[in-house]
Design brief:
This protein is an all-alpha fold and 167 residues long. The protein is built from eight helices and no strands. α7 crosses α8.
């Protein structure tokens, strides 16, 4: 395939999948600016390896894998940088469960890997085995992490009826 045709093929894919990728990125990051950056990084990596990516059986799954791994790598890098430059432990933030009424606020409290598992498993509706393959871990790890994460989300959000509008 000639280079111009390959470039046009990538551009068509990028235009068609940008909203879908952004939605997943926003759920992973919990921040619009970081989500846009994550989508751009993902698309840049896809473009860089477009021959291999376009040959994948499921291009969206390939892109989601690239995005998830990019997200986790960035979180690890930021944590490493933070720990390297940290002087003293900051005071713990007070817990205000009454202020945590949205799922995004509760998701932000999960560690990046657990958050990625919850988003991929329950928002993207991927199977346990697919999530395990994406994150390169065992199926039992996905099950246990998702179970713990859901319990933590339930604890943070409290009873569901508290947040529903009553007429």
């Amino acid at each position: 395939m000639p280079e111009t045709e390959r470039r046009q093929d990538f551009e068509a894919y990028a235009r068609g999948s940008q909203r879908r990728l952004y939605r997943t990125a926003y759920l992973l990051c919990g921040n619009a600016d970081e989500a846009r950056d994550l989508v751009q990084s993902t698309l840049a990596k896809l473009f860089q390896h477009w021959r291999r990516a376009s040959a994948a059986d499921h291009l969206d799954a390939y892109a989601r894998t690239v995005m998830t791994r990019t997200f986790l790598a960035e979180k690890r890098r930021r944590l490493r940088d933070l720990l390297a430059h940290r002087r003293a432990d900051p005071p713990a933030a007070p817990l205000h469960p009454d202020l945590r009424v949205t799922l995004l606020a509760a998701l932000a409290e999960l560690p990046p890997r657990a958050r990625a598992m919850v988003v991929l498993r329950y928002w993207e509706d991927l199977s346990v085995e697919t999530v395990a393959g994406l994150l390169k871990c065992s199926e039992s790890t996905v099950k246990s992490q998702c179970s713990r994460s859901l319990a933590r989300l339930r604890e943070r959000l409290g009873e569901a009826h508290v947040y529903t509008t009553q007429s």
